[in-house]
Amino acid sequence: MSNIWVTNGNYVTTGEIILTTAKAIRSVNGRDVTIIRRKGPAEHRIFKLTHADALVDGFTISNGALTTATSASHGGGIWMSAGTVRNCHVTKNTGYRGAGIYMTGGRVEGCVISFNNQLTGGGTEYGGGIALDGAGAVVSNCFIYRNSARSWGRSYGGGGYMSAGLIVNCVFSNNYNNSHVAYVSSGTQAGGLYMTGGTVRDSLFVTNTCYYGNDCQNGGGAIYISGGLVERCVFKNNIGNGYAGRPGGGGAIRAAGGTIRNCLFYGNKVTSAGHGGAIWLESGSPIVENCTIVANTNTAAGYTGGGIYRGAGSVINSLIYSNFVGAVHSNIYGVVDNFTFSCAPELTSGPGNITGPPKYTKRGEHIYYPSEFSPTVNAGNYQPWMVGDRDIAGGPRIAKKIVDIGCYEYTVPPGTIIVLH
């Protein structure tokens, strides 16, 4: 591999930089002092990577712009089918799908992706910050912040979009989605991530919103999911609202499919025109398993479901407690026949269900952790995926032969002395 080293500076480019060979472009002193940006009225992206050993490392990549409503406008900052983008700040780019980065393959590692804006031009497009559109696409250890899907049209995923691939150890924060009022009949979806496939793992979704301005009719403050797997993620303080009688909802997630596993939800909310303070299981066959859903709220007049609003799908091994609709304790709305081995006051019947109270506590950084006296300990139902898997704290998913209810598996605290008689 040949290396091109770039020293400090604010560099402008009047055309796309294309890496089709095993070549590395690296900054000497990092992204904060080494900037590459588009100059002038001519529209183009900044980088295109098509070789497995191509590398872009340590730059701020800014002001790429593609505004023609075609697939040629995917990836306003970076388009990649292979290679690696590492330690970069991808910011203030515009495009039709993956305004910051569009990828069908390759790896994005340790990057900040911020203030990118996805356009639609009256059509439908996806992903303000980043778009993963291939099984080989991997995004790890990235901070995806303040991106938007905000335009005249149907826009899906303020922070990002994925149909395949893997997102791991990332933070989605303060991304938002807003579409023009003319499109309320078909709506917009997902402040954070619009997801039809792939896997999101070990990530944090905080303060993403699907409500700004006119409409986020189909909701999902953090994620709208119709396929794929979300596991070991934390959802905190996200907002998923609707507009003018066309319900949004799912303060954190609105689901029409897919699986949500080993996740923690708290502080999420709906404040107008939407169901489900934390989750709206809207349609299809979504699955919620081994999740902890606590202290979420719905204050939307005429709507309900403080924790989960279930219109479809199933819930297993999950803790749903201390959620509210207005000032009323309300954890679940909808038919509860597909809730099993779960804990909520509403679950007075059904296989393995208990009504609590769950007796959770705080252990280190982990809140809503089960105490040793919790009825959720050893109260869940075994599933094949649990073998060798981990809970949200990184411990074994099954510690004592029987799985616990919720996202945590209780273990004896370090330093505990056990006396056997």
Q: What descriptors fit this protein?
A:
421 residues; mainly beta; 23-stranded parallel beta sheet; twelve-stranded parallel beta sheet
SSE layout:
Blueprint (H helix, E strand, L loop, with lengths): L1 E5 L2 E5 L3 E3 L3 E5 L6 E5 L8 E3 L5 E3 L2 E3 L15 E3 L3 E3 L2 E3 L2 E2 L5 E9 L2 E3 L2 E2 L5 E3 L3 E11 L2 E3 L2 E4 L2 E3 L3 E3 L3 E3 L2 E3 L2 E4 L13 E3 L3 E3 L2 E3 L2 E2 L12 E3 L3 E3 L2 E3 L2 E2 L7 E2 L3 E3 L3 E3 L2 E3 L2 E2 L3 E2 L3 E3 L5 E3 L2 E3 L2 E2 L9 E3 L3 E3 L2 E3 L2 E2 L2 E2 L2 E2 L5 E2 L19 E4 L2 E5 L51
Parallel strand pairs: 1-4, 2-5, 3-6, 4-7, 5-8, 6-9, 7-10, 8-11, 9-13, 10-13, 11-14, 12-15, 13-17, 14-18, 15-19, 16-20, 17-21, 17-22, 18-23, 19-24, 21-25, 22-26, 23-27, 25-29, 26-30, 27-31, 28-32, 29-34, 30-35, 31-36, 33-38, 34-39, 35-40, 36-41, 37-42, 39-43, 40-44, 41-45, 42-46, 43-48, ...
Antiparallel strand pairs: 46-47, 50-51
3D architecture notes:
With 421 residues, the chain is mainly beta. The protein contains no helices and 51 strands. The strands form 8 sheets. The protein has a 23-stranded parallel beta sheet that branches. It is globular. The model has no long low-confidence stretch (mean pLDDT 90).
